[in-house]
Design a protein that fits this description.
By secondary structure, this protein is mainly β. About 0% of the residues lie in helices and about 50% in strands. Strands 2, 4, 5, 6, 9, 10 and 11 form a seven-stranded mixed β-sheet that branches. It has a four-stranded antiparallel β-sheet with strand order 1-3-8-7, with no helix packed on it.
């Protein structure tokens, strides 16, 4: 079974930065898309950023210009660099991986808590 493990969350002041890591148990190019989602208390889970095998990226409007998704295939890792953090960014952040072809499947990590507070 494919496993995704997130790390890097924590408590940070507004304006601060964090880098989240998602380590996959297999080659990340096995997935059509990898991305980061977040879920804040009382809200639906939402897409934050995603990257395809071809390198195309997309971001939620709320994080454009502040967050950047990147990858290191040699380490089976996808990153989310978060800067200029706001209180509204507080959420549990989840790594997601999707295979579209054939039967297809989606996998989720267990999540890492990001809290932005003064």
């Amino acid at each position: 079974q494919v496993q995704l493990v997130e790390s890097g969350g924590g408590l940070v002041q507004p304006g601060g930065s964090l880098r989240l890591s998602c380590v996959a148990s297999i080659n990340i190019y096995s997935f059509d898309t990898m991305g980061w989602y977040r879920q804040a208390p009382g809200k639906q889970r939402e897409l934050v950023a995603a990257i395809t095998t071809a390198g195309s990226t997309n971001y939620a409007d709320s994080v454009k210009g502040r967050f950047a998704i990147s990858r290191d295939a040699a380490k089976n890792t996808v990153y989310l660099q978060m800067t200029s953090l706001k209180a509204e960014d507080t959420a549990v952040y989840y790594c997601n991986a999707v295979v579209v072809a054939g039967p297809g499947y989606s996998r989720w990590g267990q999540g890492t808590q990001v809290t932005v507070s003064s």
